[in-house]
Inverse folding.
């Protein structure tokens, strides 16, 4: 391939070899010497730098879109969790000689996301929505609402995890709970 640098590049209109570093330009077919610290001649250095810059621009746009998606899905998941938690009617706990405890049995619930180093899990950690779980290698959200109501917390966790799991089917997302 014959490349006419001199007509295309303002940088090589003089002597393209003047800043030679002893290597030939890395661009396929180009026989000019590479310049300075570049592996390309002055012309191809600019061409490749332009391509690299375009790539960086494109990837930062992709990143911004991905974060917008994470935010939207998280907000939806919280919303779904709260609706489920409020709609849940716990089975009252009856203890002989005491008034029934309308919020039912006491317990905890979590939403878990694996793997813990996925882009979504990293974002969740960064936002403070989830914490690393060294035991499972994922991240988890501890349901802090509804006092000690196991059933409401569980309803919240299940609704939240199903929204998240639907949005990110490649991740392992599930709810866990236990009685106190
Ligand atoms: Zn070149």
């Amino acid at each position: 391939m014959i490349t006419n640098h001199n007509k295309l590049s303002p940088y090589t209109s003089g002597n393209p070899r003047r800043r030679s570093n002893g290597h030939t330009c890395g661009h396929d077919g180009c026989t000019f010497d590479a310049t300075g610290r570049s592996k390309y001649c002055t012309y191809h250095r600019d061409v490749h730098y332009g391509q690299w810059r375009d790539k960086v621009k494109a990837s930062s746009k992709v990143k911004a879109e991905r974060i917008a998606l994470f935010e939207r899905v998280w907000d939806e998941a919280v919303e779904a969790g709260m609706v489920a938690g409020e709609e849940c009617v716990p089975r009252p706990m009856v203890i002989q000689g005491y008034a029934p405890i309308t919020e039912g049995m006491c317990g905890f619930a979590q939403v878990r996301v694996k793997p813990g180093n996925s882009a979504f899990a990293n974002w969740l950690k960064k936002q403070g929505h989830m914490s690393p779980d060294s035991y499972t290698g994922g991240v988890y959200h501890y349901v802090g609402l509804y006092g000690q109501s196991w059933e409401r917390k569980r309803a919240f966790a299940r609704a939240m995890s199903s929204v998240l799991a639907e949005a990110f089917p490649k991740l392992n997302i599930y709810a866990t709970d236990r009685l106190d």
